[in-house]
Amino acid sequence: MTAVSADQRQQLAYVATQAADARLNVEIETEGMTLNIGPQHPATHGTLRLVARLDGEQVVEAEPIMGYMHRGYEKLAEVRTYPQVTTLINRIDWLGSFANEVPFILAAEKLMEVEAPPRAQWIRTVLFELSRIANITLFLGDMAVQLGALTPVFMAFRDREFVLNQIEAATGGRFHPNFDRIGGLKDDLPQGWIDDTKQTMEKMRDFCDEFEELVLGNEIFQARSRGIGIVPAEVGLAYGLSGANIRASGVDWDLRRDGHEALAYDQVDWKVWTHPDGDSFARYWVRLQETREATHIVDQLLDGLPSGPIMAKVPRIIKVPAGEAYAATENPLGEMGYYVVSKGDLVPFRVKIRSASFSNISITPWLLKGVYVPDIITILASLYFILGDIDR
Amino acid sequence: MTAATVMSGLLAVEVPYWASAIIKVGVVALVVPTAALVLGYVFLLKMMSFMQSRLGPMEAGPYGTLQLLADGLKFIQKEDIFPAKADRTVFALAPLVVLVSTFLIYVVIPTGPDAVVAQLDVGIFYALAVSSLSVVGILMAGWASANKYALMGGLRAAGQLIAYELPLVLAVMGVVIQAGTLDLQKIVTAQAEGEIFGWGGIGNPFILTQFVGFFIFLVAVQAETTQPPFDMPVAESEIVGGYQVEYTGFRFLFFFMGEFGTAFAFAALAAVLFLGGWALPWGDLTHWGFNIAGPVIMLVKVLAVAALIFWFRFTYPRLREDQLQRLAWKFLIPLSLVNIVVTGIFKVVL
């Protein structure tokens, strides 16, 4: 590439701004109304911006604009040692933090060719499912509040607290555990934790039953969410949807069952829930069933927890051999994967984060065409994204 | 309640017109904010909190009773902000228009044989007419804010309030046919002295014979006061407060008082129309003691109706605007017409 002088660069920048202004003017001159939903809007739970061209209350075109919360984790990870990276990536999906650590650790373990002992794998899976429950519980309340019902979100916060307490008891961190280590876990479980967790799972099952009646059984909730934001299976796959969003479209695909990662899911008896409709109601329904299923998974894992060490033999100073590895797991929001490239240093050479929400939100321009303004909120809420998971 | 009439009745003192007018204005001006405070505290702060497994405010005053006063003081201290592109006059007037329409409803609500500010022959007609003035204020607010969210909220409110005026009026028609009068005072007496198919043990509170009308009235009130499940004009998760989005400080306080004051007024209307108002079915209705007991009886009934209204508010999600219109035009209005026809037939036959 030829060198560009300062003058030329300034000229290029000027042309670029002119072109941007021209594009903007064309947009303003169109008929109808351009409504800027966000970056500060209660329905975008974070700083997502949605530029919607409206005709009355009907959306002609809507485009999500992201990046208001970009924190540069991929770059930051390049200057941190492998154990330090987990502190960062805890903050990607802040509602189910422990689940963020697992795929990265698994990728690093692949490169180092170590495998965590069985007990560590099982506890990892338990905590993974607990963070799924902690995450999706909040969704169950949040979508109701987006639809105007004030009460469920408080119940969700109330009962999520029990799960957070268990996570805190085991890891020491309510939101950001930073508990997973290459080759195992930081600590073993504290005394009495297993019984407490089983009681908590009982409470969470009650919570799911309550919400099934309170929210899913509500006529207005059904009227607002059934047939709204239908994602056909092939469109969803083409946009790279994952997690409950694609399962709600009838695609029976779950990385916990279909992935190749060394977690303990093959040891328990559980079911992947799907729904044929693909609308907002289906997405809520699938998530609710998954939460209940997760409590059963936790119960079974705790029953059969193997004894043994929780840490494999790993050098004190972790140097990861040169190579590339990708590990993906079924996180609360969908498929989350880390592509780790190592040059044999203390720090990763490059980390590519594949986060679920980034792909899940990319379908919104397709999905929002022709819907009414209130349905924007329903659809955004039901797609369930977390801003940290979009912008990283 | 006119203290003036009560006093003149008790003490046999003639109160001059100007004095009684001032007392009447003072009473209404005192009752509206108090009503808004009571409803706000009992239901918005406490009942809602208990339903959501929290305590609500506990610090300001015993059990947080003074919380709303503290909030009001805070609102008054705030800077009076006008958006740069707002139509300043209209923007400033809009909350007043809403509040005035609330005040006007209170004028005709009777709380005792003499305890009423103005006994009009067309009382209920007047109350429903002035209550729909608030839509003008809301449209003004939505338009003058120069904000897209506010405009959408204003338009939604206009469409909704107009759609729900009809079932509201038609629901009241059943009561009017049964009582044979538009005068709220006479509607109260008709209920206390009435009888259900010849049995007059508890009078005839119209909720028993007009239960369809009561149901339609409550739904329409819910929409009229823009409360969930019909709170689309202010839907905070969609249009971030709608027509209120640009309002701060005491102008926002006016909207708040208007909202709760109107809720109280409609609960009072429902109590008068369907629950027998200030009267009990026993005793001499012209006895002066009802001027003292009436407001208390009335308050109990109003709080009962308001509890229903707010219970819906905290429980249900929000409908979509088109679903609401469909509910109004395709369900509530035909139902209330049928109700009128049936009531008319019974009135003629019996």
Account of the 3D structure:
The complex is a heterodimer of chains A (392) and B (350). Helix content of chain A is 50%, strand content 12%. Chain A is built from 16 helices and eight strands. In chain A, the strands form three sheets. Chain A has a three-stranded antiparallel beta sheet. In chain A, strands 6-7-8 form a three-stranded antiparallel beta sheet. Chain A has helices spanning 6-29, 73-76, 82-89, 97-112, 118-146, 151-171, 193-216, 219-225, 233-238, 244-247, 255-258, 280-303, 356-361, 364-367, 373-383, 387-391; strands spanning 33-37, 49-55, 58-65, 180-181, 184-185, 323-331, 334-342, 350-354. In chain A, helix 3 packs antiparallel against helix 4 (97-112), helix 5 runs antiparallel to helix 15 (373-383) and helix 7 (193-216) runs antiparallel to helix 12 (280-303). Chain B is an all-alpha fold and 350 residues long. Chain B is built from 13 helices and no strands. Chain B has helices at residues 3-11, 17-51, 67-77, 88-106, 123-131, 134-144, 148-179, 184-193, 206-209, 211-224, 249-274, 290-315, 321-349. In chain B, helix 4 runs parallel beside helix 11 (249-274), helix 7 packs parallel to helix 13 and helix 11 (249-274) crosses helix 12 (290-315). Chain B is globular and about 65 Å long. In chain B, 49% of the residues are buried.
CATH homolog superfamily of chain A: Cytochrome-c3 Hydrogenase, chain B
Per CATH, the architecture of chain A is Orthogonal Bundle
Query: Mean pLDDT of chain B, nearest integer?
Result: 82
Which chains make the largest contact?
Answer: A-B, 28 and 28 residues
